[in-house]
Design the sequence.
């Protein structure tokens, strides 16, 4: 490890791999002690005995640190970024496809399913995971929607996505559990689209009085 | 207790209240030992030491017995019956309203929320509760749909309803947790409608090539 990378105020010096895993261990402890919302990167650095700059050096932000501490195989903020970069009329489809690919990929499937079960529990870990999702996923999407009811829209979209996760990956109810991704995207994408941007603007048979 | 009501082959005689609660206790034990699908009313009667006719006298069917053994404040089969009696174009709205009323009513709210949490667990009770819902709710609705993809439609509708239960009653994420029933019905009813009967038949901007 070069001198430039060394934490200047650390209680002890660590090589790069050690420092990074010390930060992750400290982050897990800090998240568990304080919850997602009340954990600061400064407190994580203090607990790890490293300079706060080193935390920023290894991790983009609190969300990235949390996703790594959880060993989440997919960073929810990447799904958000992907979704927000999509054309507005493909928002629902893009989100549903990204979520399905995350829970279906052989490399990530088991850990993702485990996280779905954790998030549905009623212990502290579950509450923290949900704080994280509300803060980093729902609020960011709502912030982009630019509608007076953006937060309601975001929680409604989340209700369809959470239900899809529960039925497909948690309960594994057939035939939804094994339906091809494209089929599920065709059926659920328009629902998420409707919740996020469609309600009140989309032309429905009901709106036409049919 | 009149002679006519007495179980003829029971190991001991019980008055009506006793017999009914003995059946309920036996049913709980039998469901826990064998799961929902593999429990028969005959086995419940045997365990309770009463004539099978007496089980049928007190309870309409296995679903009714299960709902009572669970102390479920709402019988899912009543929601199904209500939904299936609704005009076909109001199926989604009717189901969503019935579910919301069940989880919001002051008298039933706490027990319903507890059941939502139980159903989401990964122990035997959770699996049994889900067997019950699949058998008594999803399969019955699918059976009425008369479409080749009826079972996929039923699981997709369930995904939106389960997600709504989780976000509104489980996680209690705002603003969805406190949104008025009518507002939620207006937004989620069309989604359940779309999943059950709309997909491929409803006129969407996409279908019109917009």
Sequence:
């Amino acid at each position: 490890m070069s001198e430039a990378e060394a934490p200047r105020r650390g209680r002890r010096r660590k090589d790069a791999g050690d420092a990074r895993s010390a930060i992750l261990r400290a982050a897990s402890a800090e998240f568990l002690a304080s919850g997602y919302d009340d954990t600061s990167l400064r407190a994580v650095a203090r607990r790890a005995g490293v300079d706060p700059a080193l935390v920023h050096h290894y991790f983009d932000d609190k969300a990235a640190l949390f996703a790594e501490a959880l060993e989440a195989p997919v960073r929810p903020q990447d799904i958000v970024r992907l979704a927000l970069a999509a054309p507005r009329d493909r928002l629902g489809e893009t989100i549903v496809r990204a979520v399905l690919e995350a829970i279906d990929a052989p490399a990530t499937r088991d850990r993702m399913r485990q996280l779905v079960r954790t998030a549905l529990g009623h212990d502290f870990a579950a509450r923290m995971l949900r704080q994280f999702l509300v803060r980093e996923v729902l609020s960011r999407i709502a912030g982009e929607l630019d509608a007076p009811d953006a937060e309601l829209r975001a929680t409604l979209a989340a209700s369809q996505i959470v239900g899809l996760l529960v039925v497909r990956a948690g309960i594994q109810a057939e035939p939804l559990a094994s339906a091809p991704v494209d089929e599920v995207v065709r059926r659920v994408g328009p629902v998420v689209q409707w919740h996020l941007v469609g309600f009140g603007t989309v032309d429905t048979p009901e709106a036409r009085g049919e």
In short: The domain at 3-69 of chain A is CATH 1.10.10.60 (Arc Repressor Mutant, subunit A). Confidence is low (pLDDT under 50) at residues 1-12, 202-210 of chain A.
